Each structure stands twice: as structure tokens, then as C-alpha cells.
Amino acid sequence: MQKLIFIYNADSGFRNAIIDGAHKILSPNTYECNLCELTFGAFTENKVWAKFRKGVRNSHGIFA
Question: Which end of the chain has fewer CB atoms < 10 Å from its terminal CB, N or C?
């Protein structure tokens, strides 16, 4: 079985989530995490990404 691994360039935690969200809103061209940009909005997970992630987990037994 082949695996696709996603690696985020972001720090976790509430404080960092606020800083990241503000960065995405105030200066999106300088945001360094392309995966974060695709999978999350400023403060919440992208609905399309969440649906995909849950579908992959359910159909392939992948924990996501």
C-alpha cells in the first residue's frame, strides 16, 4: 500500500492559531505553509478538505 504523507509547517496551540490566522488575513502572500493554506481557512478547517479527509479515513482505514 502506498502512503501519502502531509507535513505542516506550523506550530500548534491556541496562541499560534491566532497568529497564523492573522497572518493569513493580513499578509497572505508571505504565509509559508502551502498545505495549511490549502487545508485551513484563517481559523477553521476547510470544509472540502475535511470532507475529503474523513472520506479517505473511512474508505481506506487511514487515521487522519
Answer: N
Q: State yes or no: pLDDT of 15 exceeds 80.
A: yes
| C-alpha cell, 41 | 481557512
Helix, strand, coil percentages (3-state) for the chain, rounded to 5, are 55, 5, 40
Cα 52 to chain centroid, rounded: 12
Question: Do the domain assignments include residue 33?
Answer: yes
pLDDT for residue 20 is more than 80: yes
In a domain, residue 41? The reply is yes
Range of the domain at 44: 14-60
